[in-house]
Write a structure and sequence with these properties.
Length: 97
């Protein structure tokens, strides 16, 4: 698959994306980005990727929580859920950042 840049975004279901990069050794690195509303082992990004070749990124950025005025307890719950999901993925053999 030819692409015009080093990074190509492949949209799966908005806002899920899998980013693939070809490094200088022509090996493929895949990063699956999982957002707070996608904490399920059944999402397509995890179904189509190989745990041995994919790094799962679960971003804990301030930008994800700025759009809506959440109660502080809800924010803590969301962050705890994201971290717990990341721990479950690691337990199942995924590389999680």
């Amino acid at each position: 698959m030819a692409c015009s840049s080093r990074w190509e975004a492949i949209p799966l279901q908005i806002p899920q994306y899998i980013y693939t990069s070809l490094d200088d050794n022509v090996t493929t690195t895949t990063v699956a980005i999982i957002l707070p509303d996608q904490l399920s082992q059944q999402i397509s990004a995890l179904k189509i990727c190989d745990p041995n070749e994919t790094t799962v990124l679960i971003p804990e950025t301030k930008d994800l929580f700025d759009g809506v005025n959440h109660h502080k307890k809800k924010l803590i719950f969301l962050l705890a859920s994201m971290r717990q999901f990341g721990a479950e993925l690691k337990k199942n053999g995924w590389t999680v950042q």
